[in-house]
Amino acid sequence: MANGNKSNQLTTEPRTGTKRSELRKLRLNGRIPAVVYGSDMEGTPVSVDAKEFKKVIRTGRTEMLDLVLEGGRKVPVLIKDYQERDGQWLHADFLKVSKNKPIRVRVAIDYQGTAAGTKTGGILQVQETELEIEALPDDLPSVIEADISGMEVGDKLTAGDIKLPDKVTLISPSEELLASIVIPRAVEAENEAADNAGEAEAAEGAEGDS
Questions:
Q1: Model-level pTM?
Q2: Where is the Large ribosomal subunit protein bL25 L25 domain positioned along the sequence (predicted)?
């Protein structure tokens, strides 16, 4: 769901150090090196509190938030990217946005339900976990829901099959394959062997009748 007009807030501190040792010291002190940038704003190095960032990231990367810069100036941003390793936040990128200008982002797909085909021997094969969409910041969904409960063996789900929220435009190719229900190779091989055996028996029966 979009966040409406409510925004989270994250306070920053100026960052001047770029050496590996300085960045490491920041992280040890519970802060994350970050940068905020936009079409009308040069990249500005900052740092944010790791615990506060963790709270914000839980709401989804497409949730708009106010980044408080030096001097108390608030800048509306989205979390464009972040790096994490072994449970430690390494870096974050914040993109300054305009509430009146559509932006393109990739949003996670939430596959909901249990595919009917998996109950008859099929396997859900997921090819994509995100979709690229475009919308105003306030209309961006945190996730995109995809109901797969009606999918049978052999069925395919494409980007064009997804029902998007109002005011959201699909940017990913409509024919892009997201998921499918396939037969496991072992089962498929057994079925082929059974079919071949059946054909051989039928052929032998035909020869015996002639």
A1: 0.68
A2: 10-94
